[in-house]
Amino acid sequence: MNLSPQLAVWANYATGFRAPNAGQLNAFFENLLSFYKTVPNPGLKPEKSRNFEVGLRGRSPGLAWDAAIFSSRFNDLIEDSSQVGGAGVAGNPTIFQSINVSRAKINGFEFKAQAPVGRLSGGEFSASLVYGRSVGTDSNTNKPLNSTDPSKLVVGLSYKHALADIRLSATHHGQKAESGVNGALLVSAPSTQFLTPATTTWDLTSQWHVAKGVRVNAAVVNLTNQKYWAWNTVRGLSSVSVGLDAYTQPGRSANVGLTVDF
Fold it and tell me: Is the pTM of this model over 0.85?
C-alpha cells in the first residue's frame, strides 16, 4: 500500500512445511579421537511454521531503502547438532542428534539501503548496506535456540559500466553472545561452548562483458585472509577444543569463470 509516491508499506503472511532430510534421518558419524558422534533420528517429525512480515519501502532519486520486521512460530522445529547424551570422554562419547523442538519462535528485522554516489567514464558508483538480526527461543523452556545465527552487516561499493561490473564488499559477522546459546544442549559440563568472535571479511568480485553473450567472472574472496568461524559449523565444540582451527572458514582465494550464452 502506497502511503505517498516515495513511501509504501507492505505485509506478508505465509505458512511453511519442511520434511527432515536424509542425513537427519539416517546419517551416522563418529570421531574416535575427539570422543563424539552424530547419530540419526528416524523418528524426526516434519517442521511446520507460520510466518508474518511487515515492512516499509522508500524510494527517491538519491536513496532506495527497505526495512522489515518478521515473526515466525514453529511446531516441531528441526534443530540440528543437539547434545542428547554422553560425556565427551573415552567410552562415553558425546552424542549429537537432530531433534524436534515442539514449539519455538524466531523474531528479527532486516534493513537494506542503496544510493548512487557518483559517475566515472560512463559508469555509475553506488553504495549499499544490508543489516539483519534475529533471536530464536524455545517456547517451552524460554531458552535460546542454538541454530540462530549472529547478526550480520554487509556494506558494499559497486561500479557498473556497459563493459564491466565491479564490487568491493565488507561483511561484519557479529559475535555469538553467551546469552544466545543454550549450552546444555551443545557441550558437557564443565566445558563451555565455543562462541564465535566478531570479525570482518572483504571480498572483491567482478564481471567483464568481453563480447556479446560472453562474460568473464573473477573474484578474490576474503581479501585480508581473515581467520574466522561460521557459527553453525562450530555448534557443539568446546571453547578449549584442540580442533577449533579445523573448522575455520576458507582463507584468501581467487576464482575465474567464463559464461557463454547461446
Answer: yes
